[in-house]
Amino acid sequence: MFIRSAYAVSPQLSFELLIENPEQYSGAQLICKEPDYTKYIDQKLIRRMSRIIKMGAAAAMECVQTSGVAMPDAIISGTAYGCLADTEQFLTRMVEFKEELLSPTAFIQSTHNTVGAQIALMLQCHNYNNTYVHRGSSFETALLDAISLIQDDDAEKVLVGGVDEITEKSHAILKRFGLYKKDGNTETLINSGTKGTMAGEGAAFFLLTKSKENSWAKLDAIQTFYKPETESVVLIKRFLEGNNVSISDIDLVILGNNGDEQADEHYNKLAGALFAGKNCITYKQYCGEYPTSSSFALWLASKILNSGKVPGKSTALAPRRILIYNNYKLQYPSLYLLSAC
């Protein structure tokens, strides 16, 4: 399976600037740097769209334009939170108007599949369209569906992505559970030794094909789990063995450290046991923590393989094979194996 193109709307302006001078944030959350939407979306539509729909649509349209593919055979998205801003707006108006004279617009646009539907409308794509809402494995499930379609010859070119946003109200609710730091800083986030992380958001889309031609990277394998009883060290060894790859074949490991002391301890133990002496980097200091952040990690790995440049590793040789390991809330382990084309 090959990644023909990829694009992410994230708290970073671009991959090139991320390499040279990444955006730094302080506080409890990272907010996306939104592009000029008029490049991708009709101005009459923009004012009717919530922020997450615009982010998802822009990421998807840029991905399609870069790939040179006029029409994907399928559009698949994964999201855990869905369109939070529209949901909040509809619920607020229900209370304000005492459930009378409600406009249905916010409700219609609040459903989780709105992003995928809007992309299809913009592309005039009448092909397979699905959205997965599986909490911390939402993007992985969408990606597995895309891979299955291509392997079963039901599609040749699939647009797949992960999108999630954070709003003021959702952040206020989530921080009650002690998930986020009050005074976080992305420069010192990883291995900060304190409880909590920094919230993030983003939209990343990929054009998957069977053809190697003009592709950025090859997606060799993906596997996801839910609350496995087996230790992560064993899961990763089995994953690599199942794909006839040894630890020595891996040039770069991308880990999902998020700054929370318990989570970082999990990743650091794993790195010490399996990846001692290997080039390891983290990515959540660039995008923050959210259920579909692994889509940002996949975008980052694709750009690294395509460009040969590694964030924070200016002297590192261009990697040929990358392993991504993320474990959202230490309940949803996911593994990706990529190689250069």
Automatic annotation (TrEMBL):
One of its GO terms (molecular function) is acyltransferase activity. InterPro entries: Ketoacyl_synth_N, Thiolase-like. SUPFAM superfamilies: Thiolase-like. Pfam families: ketoacyl-synt. Residues 41-212 form the Beta-ketoacyl synthase-like N-terminal domain. This is Beta-ketoacyl synthase. It comes from Niabella ginsenosidivorans.
